[in-house]
Amino acid sequence: MPELKRFQHYIDGRFEDAAAHFESLDPATGAPWALMPAASAQDVDRAVRAADAALRAPAWAGLTATARGKLLSRLGDLLAEAAPRLATLETRDTGKIIRETGGQIAYIAEYFRFYGGLADKVMGLHVPVDKPEMEVTLRREPVGVVAAMVPWNSQLFLAAVKLGPALAAGCTIVLKAAEDGAAPLLEFARVVHEAGFPPGVVNIITGTGAQCGQALTTHPLVARIAFTGGPETARHIVRNSAANLAATTLELGGKSPVLAFADADPDNVVSAVIAGIFAASGQSCVAGSRLLVQRPLLPALLERLKARAEQIVIGNPADAATQMGPLATARQRERALALIKDSQDQGAVLITGGDVPAGFEAGFYLRPTILLCDTPKPPCWGEEFFAPVLSVMAFDTEDEALALANDSKFALASGVFTQNLARAHRLARAIRAGVVWVNTYRVISPLVPFGGYKESGLGREGGVESILDYTRTKSVWINLSDAPLPDPFVMR
Ligand code: NAD
Fold first, then answer.
1. Residue 296: which domain range?
2. Is 153 in the pocket of ligand 1 (CB under 6 A)?
3. Which of 242, 271, 291, 419 is deepest in the core (most CB within 10 A)?
């Protein structure tokens, strides 16, 4: 067997071997290809202490906000250069197709450039206080050490929306890569190192949630937790944060509805739905996994979606011709197959897919799957698959579509396809979700905040406002008067 590639942790500016490693499997073949370092509670403690020391060290705390911004912009430039190398690693470790990883990583550079530019635009305030002898100013200070955790899909992107604002605000960070697909983030540490951040400002480790994640989120020196993952883990994190009372943002799962009205452009609906659910093999938090179709459009649309899904080129994710690769883990595929079966048992009709494509049994592949539901009862309508599985239901009226769209424990993203401007605006107001895309789907930008309602999360990432979440306000009172202080037993 060929020797497995060995990855290292990045702690306090040094690349380190861990005492223990675990194997990472290539999702296209199911075979081990790399050894990942497993951070122990002691490794986590060293990383957090390094971040805490860096917070006050002159090499970081002494930098102007402008200088911090320049470092971030440089990180963006170096990331753009490293994109092909990192994309190859991400494809190998997660099975995400090379067409997608290459473009996505190059675009992530824009997030670092955006937050680099924002670093010196976070201003304090002068307060015209109701006491004439007092001068009051508000300072925006970095909140402290950030513990960031990401899941395996889009690790670099999900890390960038935490690292960018945290570093721009002057925080330091310990970033835990997911135990599945950690390679691109561990390799990204070399780009961070080359950019010239002082030791301890950025630390990148990986390990299991139970050991590494738990130790990180309960650490007493952590002041802020930024988490992306599933709602059950989020509940652990919130409980963990009782230990350090760290402020927490949560970016969680989704079951995003796409509403297609009879007046919509059918070509656009097909393209958006296919991209929304089958890109990244459905392992996207914003996957448009519930399609609501106005009844007159249903037969023709379903036929076209079935034909298009069956034409998707399944293959080796490293091949540029491949349009859909495997799922990241065997566990994910088994869960999806079980949910599909349960859904059929509860009345959902299989339109296409639902099984492993012939010739791809060794890897973690699943055919693009479409299920038609009569009612919201089958689990495929309510549960997040995180797999290429689309559930479709017909509706008659706008009110009915809206009620079905909002009837979910999740509320992350949504799509509306209609030519009726007033309806588009009505639904943009009425849909309860963090994002509404009208006549488009799955578009992102560093300028636009992102996040969910309900069990899809708490707080926003991206955009200008997220930088403030990495700061806290200090109120400074200066007495301008030379007069003696008055009676100590009267509060003024
Ligand atoms: P997960 O919750 O199992 O794992 C996420 C991270 O949390 C991993 O790094 C894991 O090791 C860590 N973790 C696990 N247990 C922990 C604990 N007790 N303490 C601290 N850390 C712990 O997530 P997953 O199932 O691997 O990822 C898929 C989920 O992520 C889906 O629900 C998906 O929708 C969601 N997601 C959301 C967004 C978003 O922006 N809203 C983006 C991508 C993925």
1. 257-438
2. yes
3. 291
Minimum mean pLDDT range among 114-123, 295-304, 312-321, 483-492:
483-492
Catalytic residue status for 251 = yes
Does residue 289 share a domain with residue 212? no
Query: Is the CB–ligand 1 distance for residue 410 below 6 Å?
Result: no
Whole-number Å distance, alpha carbon 66 to ligand 1 midpoint, is 33
- Rounded Cα distance between 325 and 339, Å, is 20
Using the atom order of ligand 1, give the atom closest to the CA of residue 207: 11
- Residue 310 above 90 pLDDT? yes
Residue 76 placed within a domain = yes
Given the residues 100, 179, 212, 285, select the one marked as catalytic. Answer: 285
Task: Tell me, yes or no, if 455 is annotated catalytic.
Answer: no
Residue-by-residue DSSP string for 151-210: -STTHHHHHHHHHHHHHHHT-EEEEEE-SSS-HHHHHHHHHHHHHTPPTTSEEEEE--II
Q: Please tell me whether residues 377 and 407 are part of one structural domain.
A: yes
Say whether both 179 and 261 belong to one domain: no
Tell me the pLDDT band of 1, cut-offs 50, 70 and 90.
low
At residue 208, the pLDDT reads 96
Catalytic pick from 251, 383, 384, 461?
A: 251
Q: Report how many domains make up the chain.
A: 2
